[in-house]
Specification:
Length: 113
């Protein structure tokens, strides 16, 4: 499952931070996931529960912020909204669109104790 490896990298980031900042437990994590990152929030939640066991993130609340996809259309010469990774331009219908945003995933905030 794709979400499982994404979640593992998130837990890895949290464990690194825990070592660096010397905290023992994370109460909440705010995760930013792009709409084109191929990560289902529900699957992320499930994986987070499983992968966080025995780590400082165990039992933490997971808040997911979705970011819309965006691309650059070479025919319209402007930024357009992208619903899917390889979707055509919503304005001109052509496929000369390069994805410019919406496939990222990062930890925005952590509430620690
Ligand atoms: Zn276009």
């Amino acid at each position: 499952m794709h979400e499982m490896s994404l979640t593992e990298s998130v837990i890895g980031i949290i464990e690194d931070e825990a070592r660096r900042q010397n905290f023992l437990r994370v109460r909440a994590v705010v995760l930013e996931i792009g709409a084109l990152a191929c990560a289902e929030p529900e699957a992320m939640r499930f994986c987070f529960d499983v992968v966080s066991r025995g780590t400082p993130a165990e039992g933490a609340r997971l808040d997911i912020v979705r970011v819309a996809g965006a691309g650059w259309c070479f025919d319209c010469e402007r930024e357009v909204a992208l619903a899917e990774r390889f979707a055509p331009c919503p304005d001109c219908g052509r496929s000369r669109v390069r994805m410019t945003g919406g496939d990222e995933m990062r930890v925005l905030e952590m509430e620690v104790e």
